[in-house]
């Protein structure tokens, strides 16, 4: 059993954010779990608790500036994945990428049949616990030469001629292509989003200005190069126009390229819907960089707003419950859809917005030997951290999954001390979104954070 400081630095700083599936509190209200402690007045309506969190909205794959993890199709199939994030939060209190996920075939359970997090050194094992099973796909497969998840910019002279050996092809975000045959004297050029560029440069050193990760990237004349990314902004232009565009003066310019792979090996450029060969796992997420954006404000990547959820006390158990199947607002929507018609708007062709995250921070005072629990049920990804340690792990795009943590299993928690609970949720795929939280923990309301900005 490892000793831990009873207070997280994130609690002391009173930093608060919410993730898709939980909620953060408003000031001046009573704690959760009030039925057990005789507390719980929340303004005019005893037995009701309103908590407010921060939703971040994303564009899906295929849209302009779409996010690689939204509407993603893992190469190992949809399902419950564990191990996507590390067991401890980073110094900013955010989840840390660990792998692209281990696909669960049988969840671990306690003696009562509740799904529980896979065994951790810091979570006490109990008699009757049943281990689960999963596949971590530890061999990422074919290793590729080149750069992965890089940033790219700069200009390259492609100087295409009329030979049939794939000297240039650009694939637009919508799947249309520009080939060497399009680059004739009357072609006007292109400026827009692309997912792939194939080229064989023919210029000399002065005609290559490709920059990868902030450094010049040498390319050899006549050698095939392929640059791919979920989305990058590219211009195709001609720098010499005399009675038409000179064939030897066609260039491409990358002005906004992140998450780029550059390699001459065709197999290194998998569609982002499949496993990313650069990382072990089942491909439930794209990369460390993509996951790092889920719970941070990123200009041009997400938009954010506060959303309030109402928890009702269950008279039978005394627990506080939020359930989108019961809450009047979300029941009318048919699921947990907090930003329909807002921010980036509904997903293409749909009546709901299916691509967002939700983050919450709150605190509680630990009461030992009272079997206080926190249970999540829903889809998609959910991670719950207590005192900075992972205690619920329900990653991946899946049908509703349920998991519970009993605080008495967390042997380092000290009776009467205050700790932080952080809830992270992501909704990433059509066609449903469900969220149910039930807890007997006395969660304290924390001042909701001001979003650093609403980005577009």
Give a brief description.
The chain folds into two domains: 9-138 and 292-444, no CATH class; 147-264, no CATH class.
Describe the structure.
- It is a single chain.
- The protein has 456 residues and is mainly beta.
- It contains four helices and 22 strands.
- The protein has helices at 9-12, 34-37, 288-292, 328-333, and strands spanning 48-58, 81-82, 102-106, 133-135, 147-157, 168-172, 177-179, 190-199, 211-212, 215-216, 225-238, 250-263, 302-313, 320-323, 356-365, 373-379, 381-386, 389-394, 401-406, 418-427, 434-439, 443-444.
- Strands 1, 13, 14, 15, 16, 17, 18, 19, 20, 21 and 22 form an eleven-stranded antiparallel beta sheet that branches.
- Strand 13 and strand 14 form a beta hairpin.
- The longest helix is centred in the last third of the chain and has 6 residues, at 328-333.
- The chain is elongated and about 85 Å long.
What characteristics describe this protein?
456 residues, mainly beta, 4% helix, disordered N terminus, disordered C terminus
How far is the first residue's CA from the last residue's CA? 46 Å
Instruction: Write down the secondary-structure element order.
Output: HHEEEEEEEEEEEEHEEHEEEEEEEE
Q: What structural class is derived from the secondary structure elements?
A: mainly beta
Give the strand content.
25-35%
Helix content: under 10%
What does the overall shape look like? Answer: elongated
Q: What does the radius of gyration come to? A: 25 Å
Unreliable segments of 5+ consecutive residues: 1-44, 452-456
Beta-strand segment tally: 22
Number of helices: 4
Q: Mean pLDDT, rounded to whole units? A: 81
Largest sheet: 11 strands, antiparallel
């Amino acid at each position: 059993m490892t000793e831990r400081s009873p207070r997280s630095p994130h609690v002391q700083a009173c930093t608060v954010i919410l993730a898709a599936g939980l909620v953060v509190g408003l000031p001046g209200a009573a704690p959760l779990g009030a039925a057990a402690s005789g507390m719980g007045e929340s303004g005019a309506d005893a037995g009701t608790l309103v908590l407010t969190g921060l939703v971040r909205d994303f564009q899906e794959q295929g849209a302009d500036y779409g996010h690689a993890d939204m509407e993603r199709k893992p190469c190992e199939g949809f399902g419950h994945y564990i191990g996507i994030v590390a067991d401890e939060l980073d110094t900013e209190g955010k989840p840390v990428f660990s792998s692209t996920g281990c696909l669960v075939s049988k969840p671990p359970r306690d003696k009562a049949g509740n799904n529980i997090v896979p065994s951790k050194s810091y979570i006490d094992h109990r008699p009757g616990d049943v281990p689960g099973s999963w596949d971590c796909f530890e061999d990422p497969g074919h290793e590729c030469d080149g750069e992965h998840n890089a940033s790219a910019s700069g200009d390259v002279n492609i100087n295409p001629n009329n030979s049939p050996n794939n000297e240039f092809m650009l694939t637009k975000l919508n799947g249309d292509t520009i080939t060497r045959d399009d680059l004739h004297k009357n072609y006007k050029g292109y400026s827009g989003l692309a997912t792939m560029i194939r080229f064989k440069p023919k210029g000399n050193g002065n005609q290559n200005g490709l920059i990868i990760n902030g450094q010049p990237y040498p390319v050899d004349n006549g050698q095939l190069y392929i640059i791919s990314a979920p989305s990058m902004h590219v211009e195709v232009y001609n720098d010499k126009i005399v009675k038409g565009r000179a064939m030897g003066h066609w260039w491409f310019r990358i002005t906004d390229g992140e998450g780029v792979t550059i390699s001459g090996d065709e197999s290194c450029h998998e569609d982002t819907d499949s496993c990313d060969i650069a990382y072990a796992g089942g491909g439930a997420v794209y990369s460390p960089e993509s996951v790092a954006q889920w719970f941070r404000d990123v200009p041009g990547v997400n938009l954010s707003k506060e959303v309030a959820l109402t928890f009702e006390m269950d008279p039978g158990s005394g627990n506080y419950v939020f359930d989108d199947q019961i809450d009047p607002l979300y029941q009318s929507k048919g699921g947990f859809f907090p930003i329909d018609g807002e921010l980036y708007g509904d997903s293409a062709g749909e009546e709901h917005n299916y691509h967002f995250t939700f983050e919450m921070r709150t605190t509680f005072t630990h009461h030992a030997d009272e079997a206080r629990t926190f249970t999540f049920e829903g889809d998609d990804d959910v991670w719950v951290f207590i005192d900075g340690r992972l205690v619920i792990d329900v990653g991946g795009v899946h049908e509703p999954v349920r998991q519970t943590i009993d605080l008495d299993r967390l042997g380092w928690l000290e009776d009467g001390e205050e700790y932080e609970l952080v809830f992270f949720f992501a909704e990433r795929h059509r066609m449903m979104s469900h969220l149910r939280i039930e807890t007997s923990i006395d969660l304290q309301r924390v001042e909701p954070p001001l979003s650093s900005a609403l980005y577009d």
